[in-house]
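Quarterly update from the structural biology core.
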Amino acid sequence: MTSSSDRTGAVDDVGVTRSYEIRTYGCQMNVHDSERLSGLLEDAGYVRAPEGSDGDADVVVFNTCAVRENADNKLYGNLGRLAPVKARRPGMQIAVGGCLAQKDRSTIVDRAPWVDVVFGTHNIGKLPVLLERARVQEEAQVEIAESLEAFPSTLPTRRESAYAAWVSISVGCNNTCTFCIVPALRGKEKDRRPGDILAEIEALVAEGVSEITLLGQNVNAYGSDIGDREAFSKLLRACGAVEGLERVRFTSPHPRDFTDDVIAAMAETPNVMPQLHMPLQSGSDPVLKAMRRSYRQDRYLGIIEKVRAAIPHAAISTDIIVGFPGETEEDFEQTLKVVREARFAQAFTFQYSKRPGTPAAEMPGQIPKEVVQDRYLRLTALQEEISWEENKKQVGRTLEVMVAEGEGRKDGATHRLSGRAPDNRLVHFAKPEQEVRPGDVVTVEITYAAPHHLLAEGPARGVRRTRAGDAWERRNAAGAAKPAGVMLGLPTVGVPAPLPAVTAGCAVD
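Predicted structure, tokenized:
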């Protein structure tokens, strides 16, 4: 941490420490970036605004996503609501970063001249400096780097969780999927050195973290930038040697790069969890070709078969786009066929809609909205049925559940706690007699299954207090401000809302 004399932009003209609020939209990469932005601001002397401040902070930062339908309208709507607030509060600052800022750099200040700072995906480390420069010069600062200035994980961080953490292993993407604008905004893939990744993991575990998620736009392509095709499987195995690291997950892989050595590493490394998120996007070979997805139905189902053979209890989830340009009823039936055969634990489903700047937006054969909506409802109904059937298979199993914070919205009323099973299924369970904390592990027997969660109604079979729970307790005992959370803008499972949602590409789970 820098000393108070070195901090910039943290204290106003009357010596009062300035507060900040970050509003996050989009994929896990944005969530990870927001943790870094929080760390940068706190390192510069800002303090986090209390939960629910809703624009009352001295600095409001929007970390944006460009792949949602109407993402720009949502941003400008939110900025418009803050304009009168800022007019009443001299010295308040607004910053816009993330993918939409990278894409619309030249228009944000034109459309919202009360914005003070616009920064991109490659230079998040500049935010405190840009805020101070805007304050001193009394004019907007727009700075968009065209290439990565510093790997995000080298920046300070304020993690949302005391017991679980993201670890970015790469940034950018080398794929050219016709529906996705992310590679144009995040750039080509850049890999971190394995030693740097493991050093970060070991440091996190020393702080009390017991679960990490390896993060990349195309996470299992890791190694392509450093010339080692088996680098990802080696990294998974190396995670298995980190003492105190109980759970390892990763997201999101690409079928093209999902090789047998990765499956073997998953099966043979005890702390790599029996969970896989494998984006399908479509079950139709012609549609996959039009999407520039470099696999076909047989290849995809072959991967699923191999994973199930090696890890019988693995829970597999996916992303699916409905109504891609040119998709026929026969194409859609092929998607339903794959869903029936793969039997996903859950699926994040999207109605295709045009995204400016993507090749798919200019393709012929755009599907009428009512057709897309009908297919969407049929797909989600099928997946809902399968999710429920797959969850019912968990009834009677005894599972170790890591207690989570904020996962069970009704826990207070039901006198239950919630957490995640090893395969990442959400489990609600009766509160044990002894105290348990987020990060602790409770052994329960599943007694009931719903499509999107499991229930353990009986007494806990066991409670294990963990270093992760100790870390959560220390953080709260120290009076740390409760995280305000992030607005992911992510899709939900189950019956869809009537408005369509566009896919967020390879990084959405």
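Residues 1-9, 480-509 have pLDDT under 50 and may be disordered.
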